[in-house]
Amino acid sequence: MDAFQLLFLVAVVTSISEWKSVSDSCNSQCKTMNEESFRVLEGESFFFVPYIIFKPNFNNKNFTWYKYVTQIQNISSDKKARVHYQGEALFLLNLSISDSAYYTAWEIKSSGRCVNHAVKIEVYNASYKGSKMLSYGEIKNSDQSKTVNCPDPVQRACSEFKGNITWYKDYTLIKDQHEVKVRVHHATKDHEGLYTCICTWAYNNKVYNTSGSRELVLQETAMHHLEILTPADESREQFADEGSEIKLNCSVLCGTNVKHDCNASWYINGIPFKNRDGYSQTTKIAIAEPSKNTIVTAILTIKKVSAKDFQQKFGCFGEGYYGKDNTTLTLKRKESIIPLAIGGVCVLFIGVFVAVLVKYFAIDLALFFRPYFPLSSSNKDTSLYDAYVVYQTPMDKITEDRLSQFIIQTLPSVLEDKCGYRLFIHGRDDIPGEDRLELVEECMNQSRRLMVILTPDLGSGSVTTERWPASPQTSVMGGFDWQVGLHHALVQRELSVILIQLGDTGPQQYTHLPPGLQHLIRKSAPLKWPEGSGGAAAWNSRFWKRVRYLMPATPVKKCAQSTIV
């Protein structure tokens, strides 16, 4: 019993005197039929007969109609009244908003039993014309040929009063359509819309209109296909952290244009899931565009993963129109990233440390492995000297002593005596009486390196000493031996150059040197002799290791011996 019936019965109880004649006629409690409900437009007319009555009898005196809004109102039986009844039929002509109400008919049968027929009528103003709210429902199926029937209240009015039917689609006239149904053959999307039939009927010499609408929806053909999308594999593991929350997705594809007969759910150890503490399951359905695929997803939420969950089997079950399928998922503990991070940091630290050591001790490593990996080209070299030593003519007593000490004592004692190299040094290896120009050219050709000793520039002018007699070739920087050496190094590219700096360069730096030598200095900075250092004279000091690194790998003496052998 709905609200209307309850209110109506309450009103009956409170209006005993009004209902006395009806109550006296009832031998027992009245039977209430199912309530009907209609939505109609203001200005139209409505003809209603209870659905159980096939053919209305306008002269049936056993029917009495009432209207209920806030109180029970009698309805006139006068045919001239706008709202009246005739036997079993209720007429609401030229509807107004005030006609919205509950209407009920009390039928007293010959046996004395009473029946209550109820109808709810809602009247909408003209602005709702064409609204789907007033539609009598959708016509939706996948058939290519569609049939749109005129709603029953409109059909009854036309049938009873011999009215004329006119059809409209989205309130555009459909020509030559006057039957109670419209047939649409080979329906396409263009045929979708709101179909309205309007019946024009005459009553008491007046013409009235009654309309009803149905919406035609073209439903595409359904294609059933069952597939579990996630978890994708037959047996799959998913990583999880103990004590954390995790969501497990069970997604099932049921086919195309399928809205029903599709289900996804979780099973735990083969038992259907039931809500329990710490677990919950939600299901959602989605239609993929533009494929129209129907996908149902069951989401199992574990609020706090426990040790027990790593031992359980979680089953994803999918059910479609034609069958079932399932897959299994297990949880696996995530490996901690901390050991991996520590290992990575250690490897990085070791790599950097090794790189620094290799860079710092690169020369030491190269010198250490030289004897074990001799160059094959060294055995074929027939040069007489490992290095041709050239230097500036000293210009003061202090520089002369420093240069003399380095050239005559330090350099030979390390490279020749301890390392086995053979040097050609001016003033020491010159042959008296031999042509100097020819000697320089020949010795330069027989040398494997050009060793240049740089001293500070003290200004222009030549200062000679007894130890270093001046000559046109050696008195100033740029003598013949310098020219030949630079030509071999820069033009012919036959000699590698070793630059050694004695003392400070001064504010002029190397601007007083020939352009070719300045070019060599820019390519490779000179090795500075650490005069005064305690271990500078030792053959394994840092300075001499760098010099030895730049010298040939195998001295000419050993090359000659290997050639003889």
UniProtKB/TrEMBL annotation:
<keyword id="KW-0325">Glycoprotein</keyword>
<protein>
    <recommendedName>
        <fullName>TIR domain-containing protein</fullName>
    </recommendedName>
</protein>
<dbReference type="InterPro" id="IPR035897">
    <property type="entry name" value="Toll_tir_struct_dom_sf"/>
</dbReference>
<dbReference type="Pfam" id="PF01582">
    <property type="entry name" value="TIR"/>
</dbReference>
<keyword id="KW-0472">Membrane</keyword>
<feature type="transmembrane region" description="Helical">
    <location>
        <begin position="337"/>
        <end position="362"/>
    </location>
</feature>
<feature type="domain" description="TIR">
    <location>
        <begin position="383"/>
        <end position="551"/>
    </location>
</feature>
<dbReference type="InterPro" id="IPR013783">
    <property type="entry name" value="Ig-like_fold"/>
</dbReference>
<dbReference type="InterPro" id="IPR000157">
    <property type="entry name" value="TIR_dom"/>
</dbReference>
<keyword id="KW-1133">Transmembrane helix</keyword>
<feature type="signal peptide">
    <location>
        <begin position="1"/>
        <end position="15"/>
    </location>
</feature>
<keyword id="KW-1015">Disulfide bond</keyword>
<dbReference type="InterPro" id="IPR015621">
    <property type="entry name" value="IL-1_rcpt_fam"/>
</dbReference>
<dbReference type="GO" id="GO:0007165">
    <property type="term" value="P:signal transduction"/>
</dbReference>
<dbReference type="InterPro" id="IPR036179">
    <property type="entry name" value="Ig-like_dom_sf"/>
</dbReference>
<keyword id="KW-0393">Immunoglobulin domain</keyword>
<keyword id="KW-0812">Transmembrane</keyword>
<dbReference type="InterPro" id="IPR003599">
    <property type="entry name" value="Ig_sub"/>
</dbReference>
<keyword id="KW-0732">Signal</keyword>
